[in-house]
């Protein structure tokens, strides 16, 4: 008997058209560039211009996904946008996206927030929703969109970024399926990173946030192993690649070392380091392209890691088991396994991730400060300017406010 599966059929990413280099940031802040490049493992920060926001990034990622999968917007019956960069306290980003994409009204539309974990919450919920409503088959569109911003000159500034990821969830998926009941879960009430209402940037207890992340990894890994009946010390035999939530590149190194410590707690440090040297380049390194080039994109971060893996490894990923660890401050975490399907060449060809990275323009430190000092309320673009902002990836832009209503074209 053929088992019905539910999961992700395709994936798309949108990255805004500007970046700030870590060399330029380091120079302006009087910090050795090696601290950012080697100490944190980041090279560029994706910068969002004032004519874009969480809505345009979400719509720009989703329109690519609908186009490349040939999905009619009216086929989408659940639209979930996960974000911690919402544009309104009441109206969800998802409603703006519904309007932009012309998704029909027989659709459940809502926004989810749980820091960076919100994206995974939306995905899991949508897989469960599709599996319960599969006859006739239903499709869900899950979008993660965020602007990772920190206070000027703060330690978090070098870990900024911006971007959106969109996933198409359906029955008999083409990319991977998931049995959500086997996922490893961990959550706890902590103050590691939070943004009180009215604050433009988060308050961060940076070192403590790393501790919380690693504790959540331990909790979710222990639960995942027990759900799958995997003995301690045998986990790496069951997984080909690992994609960790990556606020900065070297967080993946910290996470992988933590997993090795948990798996092989009886081994001496040199033996563990040998396991790290053997497994990290093979299992983790291929997922790092995005974080190095873009920075943190909060909800979409771990899925940008998955896209990086697909882009870097190409068809080698077919049939391989990927472990995905999603973490959000506050905190919530989920660790799950997914086996990549075979015959995914057209999905890989449609990613166009490197093309988007290469299209970006480098901006100066001064332009970055000017851009991030303005608030959206000050802006109203002239229609002639708007056309100049658009290209084959930037299809939707924010044009300003009219009667307190955000306008998009
Ligand atoms: P910091 O104080 O700027 O940096 O904070 P540091 O002094 O800890 O140095 C960082 C690393 O650079 C260290 O390496 C240094 O040794 C090294 P490590 O000990 O960690 O291996 N270093 C150098 N290397 C080479 N040459 C040099 C040099 N100098 C120092 N000259 C911190 C770093 C990450 C805490 C800060 O950037 C921060 O607060 N970031 C934001 C919070 C964050 O990213 N937390 C991560 C876990 S929480 C999470 O992931 C959730 C999140 O995504 C939000 C959400 O859920 O929505 C953030």
Biggest sheet strand line-up: 5-4-6-7-1-8
User: How would a crystallographer describe the biggest sheet?
Assistant: 6 strands, mixed
Low-confidence parts, pLDDT < 50 over ≥5 residues? Answer: none
**Number of helical elements:** 15
Ligands: 3-hydroxy-3-methylglutaryl-coenzyme A
Quote the distance from N terminus to C terminus: 49 Å
Rough shape?
A: globular
| Helix content percent band | 25-40%
Plain-language structure description:
With 409 residues, the protein is an alpha/beta fold. The chain is built from 15 helices and 17 strands. The strands form five sheets. Strands 5-4-6-7-1-8 form a six-stranded mixed β-sheet, sandwiched between helices. It has a four-stranded mixed β-sheet with strand order 9-14-13-12. The longest helix has 23 residues, at 206-228. The mean pLDDT is 96. Bound molecules: 3-hydroxy-3-methylglutaryl-coenzyme A. The site of 3-hydroxy-3-methylglutaryl-coenzyme A has 30 residues, from helix 2, helix 6 and strand 13.
Keywords:
409 residues, alpha/beta, 4-stranded mixed sheet, 15 helices, globular, binds 3-hydroxy-3-methylglutaryl-coenzyme A
Put the structure in a nutshell.
The chain is an alpha/beta fold. It contains 15 helices and 17 strands. α1 (22-29) packs across α2 and α3 packs across α4.
Explain the layout of strands and helices.
Layout lengths: L5 E9 L3 E4 H8 L3 H8 L3 E4 L6 H16 L6 E7 L10 H9 L6 E5 L5 H15 L6 E10 L12 E11 L4 E2 L6 E4 L5 E2 L8 E2 L1 H23 L6 H4 L2 E4 L4 H15 L5 H16 L4 H6 L6 H13 L7 E8 L3 E8 L5 H5 L3 H7 L1 E2 L2 H9 L9 H7 L8 E5 L2 E4 L1
Parallel strand pairs: 2-15, 4-5, 4-6, 12-13
Antiparallel strand pairs: 1-7, 1-8, 2-3, 6-7, 9-14, 10-11, 13-14, 16-17
Bound molecules: 3-hydroxy-3-methylglutaryl-coenzyme A (HMG).
3-hydroxy-3-methylglutaryl-coenzyme A binds next to helix 2, helix 6 and strand 13.
């Amino acid at each position: 008997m053929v088992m019905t599966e539910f999961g992700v059929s395709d994936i798309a990413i949108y990255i805004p058209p500007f970046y700030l280099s870590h060399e330029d940031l380091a120079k302006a802040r009087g910090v050795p560039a090696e601290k950012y490049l080697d100490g944190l493992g980041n090279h560029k920060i994706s910068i969002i211009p004032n004519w874009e926001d969480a809505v345009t990034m979400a719509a720009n990622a989703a329109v690519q996904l609908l186009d490349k999968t040939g999905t009619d917007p009216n086929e989408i019956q659940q639209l979930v946008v996960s974000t911690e960069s919402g544009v309104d306290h009441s109206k969800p980003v998802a409603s703006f996206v519904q309007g932009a994409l012309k998704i029909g009204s027989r659709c459940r539309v809502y926004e989810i927030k749980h820091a960076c974990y919100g994206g995974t919450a939306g995905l899991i919920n949508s897989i469960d929703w599709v599996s319960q409503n599969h006859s006739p088959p239903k499709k869900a569109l899950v979008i993660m969109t965020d602007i990772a911003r920190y206070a000027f000159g703060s330690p978090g500034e070098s870990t900024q970024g911006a971007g959106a990821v969109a996933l198409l969830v359906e029955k008999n998926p083409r990319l991977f399926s998931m049995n959500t009941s086997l996922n490893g879960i961990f959550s706890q009430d902590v103050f590691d990173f939070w943004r009180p209402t009215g604050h433009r940037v988060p308050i961060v207890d940076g070192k403590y946030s790393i501790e919380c992340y690693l504790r959540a990894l331990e909790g979710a890994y222990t639960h995942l192993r027990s759900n799958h009946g995997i003995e301690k010390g045998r986990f790496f035999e069951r997984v080909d690649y690992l994609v960790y939530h990556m606020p900065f590149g070297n967080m993946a190194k910290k996470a992988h070392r933590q997993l090795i410590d948990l798996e092989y707690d009886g081994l001496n440090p040199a033996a563990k380091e040998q396991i790290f040297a053997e497994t990290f380049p093979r299992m983790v390194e291929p997922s790092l392209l995005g974080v190095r080039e873009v920075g943190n994109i909060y909800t979409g971060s771990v899925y940008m890691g998955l896209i990086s893996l697909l882009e870097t490894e190409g068809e080698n990923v077919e049939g391989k088991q990927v472990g995905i660890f999603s973490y959000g401050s506050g905190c919530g975490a989920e660790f799950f396994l997914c086996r990549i399907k075979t015959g995914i060449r057209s999905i890989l060809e449609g990613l166009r991730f490197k093309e988007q990275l290469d299209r970006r323009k480098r901006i100066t430190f001064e332009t970055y400060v000017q851009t991030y000092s303005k608030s959206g309320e000050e802006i109203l673009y002239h229609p002639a300017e708007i056309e100049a902002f658009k290209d084959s990836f930037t299809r939707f832009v924010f044009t300003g406010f009219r009667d307190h209503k955000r306008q998009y074209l």
